[in-house]
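Progress note, project year one: complex with guanosine-5'-monophosphate.
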Amino acid sequence: MCAEPLLAVLIGPGGVGKGTIAQRLIDADENLWLSRSWTTRPQRASERGDEYVFVDAPTFERAIAEGRFLEWARFHDHLYGTPLPKAPAERDVLLEIEVQGAEQVRGRYPDAVVILITPPSDADLEGRLRARGDADEHVQKRLSSAPDEVTRGQELANFVVVNDDLERATNEILSILEGLRQQRRSPSSKD
Ligand code: 5GP
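Model obtained:
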């Protein structure tokens, strides 16, 4: 018997470490498949280039019109979207997105599991954003949207994980995913 694949969504304020955690999760868990988003944001100097499909706004808008996104949102002047997933059969799907997109995913897939990642403190978040080399203006913008991201995220999330330590937080999420898989495999534990 095969259970339906999980759709897991990582959310949390910019700079909280979602991307690093997502990468660690897929490195550690061969059942997970990480969706690659599209964005109109320019590539950062620190990025390898395969973090996103980097496109211009007309290309993104055409894909919206053609219904090619599972969700998309405007975040700080740029568009971000998850293409309709093409996960290999039976792999669980992991999305790493902001909260407006997660709200759309939940509307479309009520069973999606939303995990909110929070920083241990505001100072920690600011330190991480600065360490990423973002311009001061970008750091301020992202810090200003963090409280809303966390408040809306708390309303949506099935689980909240504090990124106080990368390895600990990653392991906590791996355990959450394993617990959910076990629940799905064992019909007796279903409500
Ligand atoms: P960044 O520019 O720092 O890479 O990403 C900005 C925000 O957009 C982050 O919160 C990131 O998780 C989110 N994001 C990345 N991809 C997507 C996507 O496909 N859809 C949505 N809604 N948000 C995304």
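The helical segments are 18-28, 57-65, 99-108, 122-131, 136-156, 166-185.
Residues 14, 18, 37, 41, 71, 73, 75, 80-82, 96-98, 100-101 surround guanosine-5'-monophosphate (CB under 6 Å).
No further modelling is planned for this target in the current period.
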